[in-house]
Amino acid sequence: MALTDWTIIQRSLTSRLFSTVTTTVTVAVAVALLLTLLMMRDAGRKAFARGSGDMHLVISADASPLVSVLNGVFHANAPRRPITWAKYEQLAASAPWDYFVPNQLGDSYQGRIPVMATTHEFFTRFMPNPGESWSLASGRFFEKNFEIVAGASAAASARLKVGDRIQLTHGAASNTADPDAGHQHDEFLFTVVGVLAPTGGSHDRALFTTLASSWLMHAYDRLEREGHHHDHDHEHADDEECDHDHHHDHGELICEEDLTDQDRLITGIYGRLITRANSDTPANLPQVFDQLRRDSTITVASPRQEIDRLFTIVGNIDRVFVAMAVVVMVSSGIAIMVALYNSMEQRRRQIAVLRVLGCSRPRVFGLVMTESATLGLAGAAVGVLLSLAGVRAAAETLKSQVGLAIEPALSPPVVLVVVAAAVILASLAGIIPAVMAYRTAVAKNLRPIG
Hints:
Number of domains: 2
Shape: elongated
Order of helices and strands: HHEHEHEEHEEHEEEEHEEHEHHHHH
Number of helices: 13
Radius of gyration: 32 Å
Helix content: 40-55%
Largest sheet: 11 strands, mixed
């Protein structure tokens, strides 16, 4: 069997198997970490931008525009301050809206799945992704009070299906700031009438019902706190809206006629202005935005601007993580240098034998450099595979926790640059050991041992 250069390198690597494996793993971790961060950064930004749908503005009474977007669009937390229905009607008349969809957040299912109370326009006008309307995986959209439409992720995590009847909870059970958090609205049963197809946005992990359903639940709680037990007969007790079977084990009923102005509250509004054909941004958007900002009782935000601002903040942290990944990669190069350097002390006799057999000094130098580059290439290849597994795990976690469908993809130019950087770094790490091999004295290292 001919003793080729590759055979020599292969035997050298396998003879120091533990050192070879640990060095390769170090390079692989560095490459995987760097690729995962780069892929998740770009894919996350696209997912957040897609998740805001086709709205131009979101209006709430939250403390800041960013909080307004995170709470109202991505269901980060329940908004603390409400907007009255009279205020909603005033704002609806303030600009030429294409749609102006009110919503109320604050309730949940099982203390963890957010519930959004809204109107039919949420499904008929608002698009969860630009150019893509809502579609159903099963069932239908809500038509009456106390009906639920479940987002795809919410239905999967709670194992909900059409026909199930559920009870809602006030707030999130983990929210200790709200004294009523965890209180179950056990007087009312909701029926699941539809399950939405996945959209890849945050709404996938929410449940949806009518505004009136939420108003009626909270009005009932208010009446109980005030000592009204509805032991009288309503004149409208036989009305269609009162004659429902969703009221649980109660003879007394509450109807929309019982609602007062303090019951008709919302926490947010999705607004889109009328636009020209083939245009997504109306010319009057800056004027409407400035006009609404002058109103100190509300917070107006552009989801796109706030997402850009969020990633500007996150980007600073992101650069720190990328820098850490680069440091790990440099450390892996140092590990290669140390491993080869230590092996040179043990392989001087082998190198001397190769020299006697006709292997020139430049060839010995090249063998060590190639061995070092091979370690870098092997580690980079394993790192690419690890990054694919890493981004998939991260994407699944974000989908279950945040509801965003992250679609990370390996960019060939980025992969090529990272792999090339790993190989070049490994080659540079091999220079000192290669010089040691080059300078190995044949006569001195072929003396009899002992």
